[in-house]
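User: Teach me something about this protein's shape.
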Amino acid sequence: MAFDIWKWISGGKSSVGNLSGAGGGRSTSSRVVVNLDVALQTTAFLRGMRVVAEGMGSMPLKLYDEGDDDGRTVRKVARKNKSYRAICYMPCWLTKTEFVETMTMHAFVNGDAFALINRGAGGSVDDPVEELLPLLPGQCEFRLSNWEPEYVVTIGNHREVLKAGQVFHLRGTSWDGRVGINILDKAREAIGLSRALEQTHGALMGTEARPAGILTTAGNLSADVADKIRAAWQKAYGPNGTKGVAVLDNGYSFSKISTDAVDSQYIENRRFQIEEIARAIGVFPQMLMHTDKASTFASSSEFFAAHVKYTMLPWVNRWEEALKRDVIGWKKKNEDVWARFTMDVLLRANPTERGAFYQIMLINGVMNPNEIRALENLNPREGGDEYLKAMNMSAGADPKDPADPKDPNAPPPPKPEDEDE
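Assistant: First, the predicted structure itself:
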């Protein structure tokens, strides 16, 4: 690149306060100003962001060289590719997991995530990648110039216009094809109402505005006596009291105030807001630790499979295609090199289910023993590269062939010509 990247990085500050929407925010109907800090204090939104980001970070990322072998696509791990380390293991000071999580969080909340591509001093867009340096939201602006992408990057007092191949752009769901949809902005009403409900309940509990019960007596009490009894009861049996067993005399009785319809509706509103936020961010409520009585361990496995298919798969596709477009490229030796996430880790079943699956794959010759051992993080064994083939699965075999000695209806074999009649 034609500029000093590290001078840029040292000029920026890494804090949540730098992120887009953290300082300002927009007001909502519930009178809560929603910005990034408020959204991250809303547990449903925070959990949804973490589920997607941590799910992406947990999947292994590898480069593959996909070639053609007699009409068949053959995929091999491209470990000798000079960009392999920067893409798959150590993009910068962050590990691959940390880098993927950070970029995914930026794109999840703001709609876009950007990272500078360092290809070395004077490197061109076709040279190997040495580093991927994440930018904070607000430090990079995407625009089209004559239908060619440009990136206006501002760090500190330095401003530079970069071209395609110099910036990695992870784009979320987009309406205009330029930038992703800002989920924080579009879901602000749901987030604001959830936050308002939480603050209202917190204020009620903090001031103890609602009594837990009522002490009653048949006699008349002066205000001073009633205050002394209330203080003594609060000291002994209040939130910070010594507790123990209460003893009532002189006709006193205690009546507990039970949950009424208003309280029940409040709880329902809070539950509904979790579902509303889940709907807005595209994450199943079960993944936000929100379940109902109908959920069981049997049904949860189907929820997890749906989560991988409908929530994680779109993000996997965005990552793989953006890495190919911006980082790997299509020229020279990288034409057939692709970045692929291993999604099997998200669908990893229990040992019994995995054993049954491996047995089917092994018997039908789809996988060999060493391929199965590799999936279980075991070393290969001698002779484990051979594929098994069932006796009745040979190509071109006819189970009713008259020459098949196993066929009971087959005619006897012909006698040799030199044998006596």
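Now, about its shape. The longest strand covers residues 61-69. The mean pLDDT is 81. If you'd like, I can walk through any region in more detail.
User: That's plenty for now, thanks!
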